[in-house]
Amino acid sequence: MSGHTPLAKGGAAPFSSFERAIAWRYLRARKAEGGVSLITAISFIGIMLAVAVMIIVMSVMNGYRDKIFDIMMGAQGHIFVYTSQLDPDAIEPLRQRLARVPHVLSARAMVVGQAAAISPRGGDASLAVVFGIRPADIRATPLIAQKLVQGDLAHFGEGRHGGNGIVIGAAMARKFDLAVGDELKLLSFSSSNMTPFGSTPRSKLYRVIAIFKMGLEDYDGTFIYMPLQQAELFFSRGNRPDYIEIRVDDPFNTMPVRLALAQAAGVPVLMDDWMDKNRSYVTALKVERMMMRMILMLIIAIAAMNIISGLVMLVKNKGRDIAILRTMGASRAAAMRIFIMTGAAIGGLGTLAGIVLGITFVIYIDPIQDAIQWVFGLFNPGERLFSADVYELARLPAKVEWREVATIAAFGFAMSVLVTLPPSWRASRLDPVEALRYE
After folding, report:
1. Helix (H, G, I), strand (E, B), or coil: what is residue 328?
2. What angle do CA 354, 359, 363 make, to 5 degrees?
3. Cα 174 to the chain's mean position, in Å?
4. pLDDT digits (tens, 9 = 90+) for 267-319
5. Which residues contact 22 (CB under 8 A, 6 or more apart)?
6. pLDDT at 212
7. Are residues 55 and 90 in the same domain?
């Protein structure tokens, strides 16, 4: 022979155009191979839906987590410096020193106590967490000042010992059927009044001057804000706040600031941060997110398993073709690479389609939720699909984290390649003589 083909010279280069052309040919549907084409389509759709579901679920969990953290860190400080062991006259100078520490946004004195909230009209009592705060500080808290649904903070702190005006959450106002101007009775078990019959829990009527709605039912139903002087009087604190609440520019990296605060304090102080106070809640969110990621990755792995079925049938149907390629000079590795590329193409295209579908769903999640709510309302008039009383958030928040999307894409493609190895190995071990014996 005057010339040789590339195969005759020892085989085509790995992943050459020759191998890619054959792999692409095997992907195309034919009537005679309808079963293979159907399994290929099922594999593609399965991976696409699995990847899309993982992106949607993880984005919703990310949005929910960020929403919860925003409310949690907006309603309370990030670092707490306790003052119970300090002289009352040393607390304000300490607060001023802490406020000048780098990365500290604000430092404010606070009193916190538990009380029973009782409507003057009678009825059930409700446990409340009462925060004593200065008027200027509450007006500088966006999650309260910008979330008022009734009233305002103009007269907060006016009157003797700060007055008797309080700010309550919308859920508490709804429970007791209260509006601005109504009165609410608070009963403190940590302080008492002396009577001829002994000590009794301290109680007092307070007037509601504003109602806020943070968006988290736990907070809207339990938080009450009153002037700092009034809280010190009501909870028998004297002139000593419970702690100095510190807000920093990076709540997720508080340790360096805590070290700087300890140095600036000049005296031994006890302190913790918002993650310490909400350790169980933060841990539960982390564990839930990790477990959900593992479960969804298993779903992607199961969806990728369909590729094995398609490739096993394809190898069986293409046994004669493989034998001819081997007799023409194709190596075992070339035959294996052809089927790896065939399966990887199915998984890769399915992963890409799933990413597009998942991100599109997240972008338009609000109208999709409205559409589902409308359909749900046809069968259950008057009911909401996502009730704030049950789910704490009336809307589904969603946030796409591109690093996580990249991880999902890499995992989906990796699983698509891994599941092709057994049938591809089987194709590479096919004996040309046995395959062509009865042809």
Report:
1. coil
2. 150
3. 28
4. 888 999 998 888 888 888 888 888 888 888 888 888 888 787 777 777 666 66
5. 325, 338
6. 93
7. no
Residue 26 pairs with which residues in a beta bridge?
Answer: none
pLDDT at 2 over 50: no
Q: What is the pLDDT of residue 437?
A: 56
Tell me how far apart the alpha carbons of residues 42 and 309 are, in angstroms, rounded to a whole number.
10
Question: In Å, what is the CA distance from 76 to each residue of 147, 211, 241, 435?
Answer: 15, 17, 15, 74
> Could you list the residue range(s) of the whole structural domain that residue 429 is in?
17-67+283-436
Whether 190 and 303 share a structural domain: no
Whole-angstrom distance, CA of residue 132 vs CA of residue 110? 6
Kindly state the tokens that stand for 295: 């479960």
Which residues, at least 6 apart from 330, have a Cβ–Cβ distance to it below 8 Å? Answer: 7, 11, 12
Q: Are residues 249 and 118 in the same domain?
A: yes
212-248 confidence digits (pLDDT tens)? 998 788 888 899 999 999 999 998 888 889 999 999 9
For all residues of the chain together, what is the average pLDDT? 81
Domain boundary among 222, 244, 268: 268
- The span from the CA of 163 to the CA of 329, in Å, is 95
